[in-house]
Write a structure and sequence with these properties.
The protein is of the alpha+beta class. Helix content is about 45%, strand content about 20%.
Length: about 210
C-alpha cells in the first residue's frame, strides 16, 4: 500500500462511541496508513541512525473500557518494543497529526538522557527549529511552541524530565487536521523524513546516553 494522505474520515474515527467501535475504525482506517508510512520511512531512518529500525503500531491492548483519544506508530531500533527506548512517533488526535522524537516515562535511562541534554544545553537548543513543538505527556494534546520557551523554561523542562518519574519529553511537529500537507501522501512522507533527519542528532545523543 502506498500512503495517499490522511482524510477527514481518519480524524472522525475518534468520534466513534465505545471502545470496540473506535478500535475497529482505527484498525480499518488508520493502521493500514501507519503501515504504509512505516514502510516508506524505516529504511531512511535506519540509514541515518546506523542501525536497523522497526515499525511498531499501537495496539491499545491494555484498554478494556475507555476508547483511545489518539493512536500512533513508532519507529525504533528494537524489534520487540519501543516504549523503553528513544523512538520516533507519527500519530493522530481528532484534530491534529504529530511527528515526535519521543522519550516517554517507561525509559529506564531518563536521567542519563536528561543529563546529556543539560550538559550540552546550547547544542540541544540550537538543534531544535523554532517552529517545532515540545510536549511533556504523550497522552495529552498539550504542547508548547519551542520558540516561546526561554532558556530558563527549557532548562526547567529538562530538569523535570530528569527528576519526575512520569515526566516525558517529546520534540517535533504538530499539524492541524486542516493542513494541506496531510492530504498529500508523498509530501507528508517527505515531511516525516525531514523531521526525523532534523531530530536525528538528538535521537543519537539520547541513544548514546542510554547505552
Amino acid at each position: 500500500m502506498i500512503f495517499e494522505g490522511f482524510k477527514q474520515a481518519d480524524f472522525d474515527v475518534f468520534t466513534i462511541p465505545g471502545l470496540e467501535g473506535r478500535m475497529e475504525g482505527i484498525q480499518q482506517r488508520i493502521q493500514p496508513k501507519f503501515k504504509a508510512i512505516g514502510d516508506a520511512v524505516c529504511d531512511d531512518t535506519a540509514m541515518l541512525a546506523g542501525d536497523e529500525m522497526f515499525l511498531h503500531i499501537a495496539k491499545h491492548a491494555r484498554r478494556t473500557v475507555n476508547a483511545p483519544v489518539d493512536t500512533w506508530m513508532a519507529v525504533c531500533h528494537n524489534k520487540r518494543g519501543y516504549k523503553q527506548y528513544p523512538h520516533f512517533q507519527v500519530g493522530l488526535f481528532d484534530d491534529r497529526v504529530f511527528v515526535w522524537l519521543a522519550l516517554i516515562y517507561e525509559l529506564p535511562s531518563k536521567q542519563t538522557i536528561a543529563k546529556a541534554y543539560l550538559d550540552h544545553f546550547d547544542e540541544v537548543r540550537a538543534m531544535i527549529p523554532s517552529n517545532y513543538m515540545l510536549s511533556f505527556d504523550h497522552m495529552k494534546k498539550d504542547a508548547s511552541a519551542f520558540s516561546e520557551l526561554s532558556d530558563t523554561e527549557l532548562q526547567k523542562a529538562l530538569e523535570r524530565f530528569r527528576d519526575v518519574k512520569k515526566a516525558e519529553l517529546l520534540i517535533g511537529q504538530n499539524l492541524p487536521s486542516s493542513a494541506s500537507v496531510l492530504a498529500d501522501g508523498p509530501q507528508f512522507i517527505e515531511l516525516v523524513k525531514d523531521t526525523i533527519h532534523t531530530l536525528m542528532p538528538l535521537y543519537q545523543m539520547a541513544r548514546n546516553a542510554s547505552m
